[in-house]
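Task 17 of the worksheet. Students: predict the tertiary structure of the chain below and write it out as structure tokens. Keep your answer in the requested format; marks are given for formatting as well as content.
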Amino acid sequence: MALPFNIKAERPIKRIEVLKYLFITIFSLYALRLFFIQGILSELYRQQAATITRRVITIPAQRGEIYDRNYNQPIVLNVDSFSVSIIPAEIPKGTFQQVAERVASIMGISTDVINTKIPPSYYHLYQPIEIATNVSYEAIVALAEHADELPGVTWQSKPIRNYVDTGSLSHVIGYVGEITREELKLLYNKGYAQGDIIGKAGIEKQYDEILRGKNGKIIKTVDVRERNISQKEGELTDPPISGKNLVLTIDRNIQTLTEKALGPRMGAAVVLKPASGEILAMVSYPWYDPNIFNRNDKGQLYQNLLADPNRPLVNRAIQSSYPPASTFKIIMTAAILNEKVFPLDKKVLCEGEIYYGDRSWRCWVRKPGHGYLNLQQALAQSCDIYYWNVVRDYLGIERVVQYARDFGLGELTNIDLPGETPGFVPTPQWKERRFHEKWLGGDTMNMSIGQGFTLITPLQMANMVAMLINNGVIYEPHLLKEVRDPISGAIVKKVQPTILHKSEEISEETFKATREYMRTVITEGTARFPLNIKTVQIAGKTGTAEVGLADRWHSWLVAYGPYNATNPEDQVVVAVIVEASNPWEWWATYATGIIFQGIFANQTYEEAVQALGFQHITTVRERRE
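Model answer:
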């Protein structure tokens, strides 16, 4: 007998009803559980999250040390210190200012320092923000004693830079500081992070990626009082890697000698090895103490340096340019010799004054002048009238510009320091664009003796003479000699001489004759008294640049020695500029003599002054070349 149709249809309907109620029941249970967790247990979980958390602690890497060329004692090293940080989100809401005031009181700093580094927009952050470095041990003990009252306040050991030589090396070494937001935007992809210490100037900045190393980190679980509640003491997931050590080309003894020879006079001095481009000394005065950037009031101290009218942050050896004055006659002498535009034995009469362009042009000796001079005598006596006539009427401005550039003027030297200025070589086209005036014969006359618009840095001056010594080759000046492993001391990298420029226009005969003429400047010319010393034979050129003052001038001296050396490795170039802002004393010439005496007699500054008899120097008041 067949079943009725409605009995067969009821079975799937009942099954569907059962499944529907089952789903409703399961969904209701999950909803109840979710409500229980979010509504009833949420406060419990919030308290647990607030009292127990995983903390990532950064272990700062040791920054590489810096040595002079002898690699015996560091001139920059690291010393142990403490830093203090605040984790803003761990401070209860509404109590940040009370905690900040308490921390500031204990540490002896202003609350403004903390508020500047942690504005209200940062209060939600769980990452530590450093508020002070170079914190004393006593301050750390005081913070620890009040740890219960200072939620979110942490501290850790953090090495800081110690600049052992705080004099003229400051412009070479530079200093370090915390990375800024603008710097982080540029360096983020290179692995830099907020709070990193980076080089801000000098070698510290130039080779920051070699010096900085890589920070390590420890992960641990702590309670609200920063107590470690992990099963393990801490997991060192990434050990720090120390930065590499740098060995510079600087010779500490020659640096000190040069620093004292320049003395407290605004200016600069460079000692260069022409055969390799190594810088043995680089001095710029005034200098500053880079250790001030370890202090908590470094912001104000930095502003003081910026406001100083003597500009102590400027490295005058590469960042200031000056009229080359009569040192430019070295280039003009080489040009006249090489172009053969004027007979070498032909003489020009100097009566101390000539007339050109409706004005009087006076040689530096004034009347009655030098008398008749040929090219060699004109360089030795630094006769302006000889160069005015020959360069204007026979050489021409196009060749003047050509030879100036061939000697490296107007171009960067590519020294491994940031912020170098290229100097300037004017041209007739530049003057017409700049002043809407044509280049005149008077402009050529000015340029022929290193006045007018031409500008040169002390380092470019040293390179100019290095090219003469090397028969047309200039090597890139550099300060880095070696990179060494911080543990084994093994050499990781050694810097080799690199050719910056090679002249294709000037003959070896021209270079040889120019060097011979420069020697006569010392033996019978303007520098024969202070530089004709027994210890070493020197060749060079003086220069006195006019700056619009009646009783003061820039004082230049560039020279090399030994003049008679058979091995180019034995020779050094010295370039000294003493600015007109100092009382006039023609000091660049005497400073150069002291430097050469100290280097080649292996004497200190005091011993060199005594040997040369310069302790009895009478102050020079009149202009000298």
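Marker's comment: The chain has a mean pLDDT of 90. The two ends are 139 Å apart (CA to CA).
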